[in-house]
Design goal:
- The chain is of the alpha/beta class.
- Helices cover 50% and strands 13% of the residues.
- β4, α6 and β5 form a beta-alpha-beta unit.
- It binds phosphoenolpyruvate and magnesium ion.
């Protein structure tokens, strides 16, 4: 038997639990950075030739996909690819790129990239749905040509059949969402971080996911049989019959654990000495609402509304679509509150339709509330729907990535003007909804006392607060060990926020991934937090942990942690003072 059929085991980091058995589908999705390479005059003809070959190859690819989609899914969808093929037949478009190669004497990748960027700017100035759609086509075509130039095969989603495990170098949240709704039963991603939005989406879709196995795709081929355990982080290639039997056993165990978890639903979420800590649910997709209720969530602590947009993209959701969804959220969780976050687009959650420029460093760019305030038209549609839905339940609204008081004041003024409009129009709505902000930028944590006087509540986003305070990209596996939730700098920031909120008498919660980890959640309660929000499936474990520990003990441990200088010391102190958390900290 050749090496390719023997069983092999790869170890990664399990970030979304569950066990899946399926065949591999390897995807290359990371488009290489495009660099400008100057050419000598005599190199230009060969470069033109390379460009023509690449466009021919891209053309053939597109036509192949078009025929398949046409056959399997019908004429209408097939036409999308006709539109793509047309671009590659358009002599004006192709000549524009060739001229740049000739005149600027640059590599074809750079010429494609710059030409498309230039055309995007021209398209962006025109407000027309049809042209906006063409801009999308143009981007797809550019991606295809660049892929072809770089020798990357782009994958055709329509080919997915049977139950597959997607193995990719990198996945954007929107791609993960599209794939997760096809017949994809697990993700294995070579790169990534535990709190990246893609892994959050995998958890929302309840699909096992493993990250951090660099080069895995060079060790397997499409159709290899894989077992993926999203908890242990193990990927087994070509499992033996014995291993498959063990997988069956493991699934039985997991189902048993699920039943035990559900049994905690009716118990109160409180510490051993009776301090109540409501546990709310973070929701990215509407279908998670039902799961949240099943797991006993005390309302929705974070609805990431940008996923409504990401699902509809390139179309923007209408006011009615926003309204119907928010209304469903508040009505379903009544009498508990539903906290809806305004769009947190930008950064890695692409917002190409809203941004008309490319950013060098989008994570520090026009993201969250900055983008929303820059696009009042889009913000207004969302706010009208939020005010209208607030008439049906306890709806709280919060804005992401706030970094200054000015933004809060602009937000309030804007919300007030939207409410005035609704009143003038005689539309039913509720004006006095709670308006809060996320604390996820260090500047906001440092002026929490000021902010607390001008907003109705805080919700701390530790995923970003860690990223921005420790200068560690939450998506980057190369600095994953520096992403330390127990870093004393973070604990001090959290303390400032809790104190600021308590002095102003406003509620404060944590909705970052830290809240869904038993050891971290216990420490958060020790720091004074009395409301936590997490992926719904984490609720039972957090409830069980908190019910076994005295809040006074937690407060004492947290106070000592605040005097320490390193994350390692904090971890050692927590493990020694609270032995029941030691094993969770090690995991
Ligand atoms: C956070 O930053 O902790 C948060 C909850 O927001 P998101 O993960 O969507 O950035
Ligand atoms: Mg955030």
């Amino acid at each position: 038997m050749g090496e390719e059929h023997t069983m092999r085991v790869f170890q990664g980091l399990g970030v979304s639990p569950g066990v899946a058995v399926g065949r591999a589908l390897c995807l290359e999705t990371r488009s290489e950075d495009v660099f400008r390479l100057p050419l000598a005059e005599e190199e230009v003809p060969a470069e033109l030739d390379r460009f023509r070959q690449a466009t021919r190859r891209a053309q053939q690819e597109i036509l192949k996909v078009r025929d398949k989609v046409h056959r399997q899914l019908g004429e209408e969808l097939g036409q999308i690819f006709d539109a793509h093929a047309l671009f590659l037949d358009d002599p004006v478009f192709l000549e524009r790129i060739e001229r740049r190669i000739r005149e600027e004497q640059v590599n074809a990748e750079w010429a494609v990239f710059r030409t498309v960027e230039e055309m995007e700017k021209q398209f962006a100035a025109i407000q027309d749905d049809y042209l906006r759609q063409r801009m999308e086509d143009l981007r797809d075509v550019a991606h295809q040509i660049l892929g072809s130039l770089q020798g990357i095969a782009h994958h055709d989603l329509s080919e997915i059949n049977g139950e597959v495990v997607v193995v990719a170098d990198e996945l954007t949240p929107s791609y993960a969402l599209r794939l997760g709704r096809e017949r994809v039963i697990a993700f294995v991603i070579e790169s990534g971080g535990r709190t990246s939005h893609t892994t959050i989406i995998a958890r929302s879709l309840n699909i096992p996911c493993i990250i951090g196995i660099p080069g895995l795709r060079t060790n397997i081929t499409d159709d290899d049989s894989l077992v993926v355990d999203g908890e242990t982080g193990q990927v087994v290639v070509n499992p033996t019959l014995e291993l498959l039997a063990a997988v069956h056993e493991r699934r039985v165990q997991l189902a048993e654990r699920e039943r035990a978890a559900l049994a905690t639903c009716g118990l109160e979420a409180c510490t051993a000495d009776g301090v109540v800590v409501p546990l709310m649910a973070n929701i990215d997709l509407p279908e998670e609402l039902e799961v949240a209720l099943r797991y006993g969530a005390a309302g929705v602590g974070l609805y990431r509304s940008e996923f409504l947009y990401i699902e509809r993209s390139p179309q923007l959701p209408t006011e009615e679509e926003h309204y119907q969804l928010y209304r469903r959220l508040v009505e379903t969780v009544r009498p508990h509150p539903a906290i809806i976050r305004t769009y947190d687009l930008g950064g890695r959650k692409l917002a190409r339709e809203l941004l008309d420029t490319r950013e060098e460093n989008p994570v520090l760019g026009l993201r969250g509330i900055r983008l929303t305030l820059a696009r009042p038209d889009v913000f207004q549609t969302q706010f009208r729907a939020l005010f209208r839905a607030a008439a049906h339940g306890d709806l709280w609204v919060m804005a992401p990535l706030v970094s200054s008081l000015d933004e809060v004041r602009q937000l309030r003024a804007f919300a007030g003007a939207v409410a005035d409009d609704l009143e003038r129009e005689g539309v039913p709505f509720r004006r006095d909804l709670k308006l809060g902000i996320m604390i996820e930028v260090p500047s906001a944590a440092l002026i929490a006392d000021h902010l607390a006087r001008e907003v109705d509540f805080f919700s701390i986003g530790t995923n970003d607060l860690i990223q921005y305070s420790l200068a560690v990209d939450r998506n980057n596996e190369h600095v994953a060990d520096l992403y330390q939730p127990l870093h004393p700098a973070l604990l001090r920031l959290l303390k400032l926020v809790v104190d600021g909120a308590s002095r102003a008498g406003i509620p404060v919660s944590v909705c970052g991934e830290m809240a869904g980890d038993p050891a971290y959640a216990a420490l958060l309660v020790g720091l004074g937090l009395r409301r936590l929000s997490m992926g719904p499936r984490a609720i039972p474990a957090i409830k069980t942990t908190l019910r076994e520990i005295d809040s006074r003990k937690l407060a004492e441990v947290a106070e000592r942690c605040l005097t320490l200088g390193t994350a390692v010391e904090v971890e050692a102190l927590v493990a020694a003072a609270l032995p029941s958390l030691a094993s969770v900290l090690e995991a």
